[in-house]
Amino acid sequence: MLGHLGFSYVGLIYLLMLWIPNIIWSKNKPIDYDSSHENKILLVFERVGQVCCTCSILIFKDFNITAFSPWSFWLIASFLLMIVYEISWIRYFINDHTEANFYRSFWGIPVPGASLPVIAFLLLGIYGKVVWLIASAIIIGIGHIGIHVQHLKAIKQV
């Protein structure tokens, strides 16, 4: 296992693709956004998953690009999901900054701000054959997607 440790520039690219829109969002939150009622258990899953994903995506060189093989399709699929994630952010930023706009599906993908990066990280973990990222993606998925679905349900009840 120690032979797999090393810096992942692919992991850094993914984190930048994740963090940059989130930093911009923090200055452009939905006008009706209220996080005070988020499920505390889901919040713990989300935070633990964030830490674990951030660490595992950076410290395993298995995510870096190698010679093309059938495993490369996992990386391609993962990266395409991250591109769609970026496009979904653009859609939010150029439209009204409301919760309804933030949580609405994108190209049929429910809660894209949560589901796209989680699935992308899961596929990246499969590509790199790193169980730590796979497990971390599942953990963050439970929390992050769960919280987004709760927000979406609350919007639909109004």
TrEMBL record:
It comes from the Bacteria. Keywords: Membrane, Transmembrane, Transmembrane helix. The chain crosses the membrane at residues 6-25, 72-94, 106-124, 130-149. This is Uncharacterized protein. It comes from Neobacillus paridis.
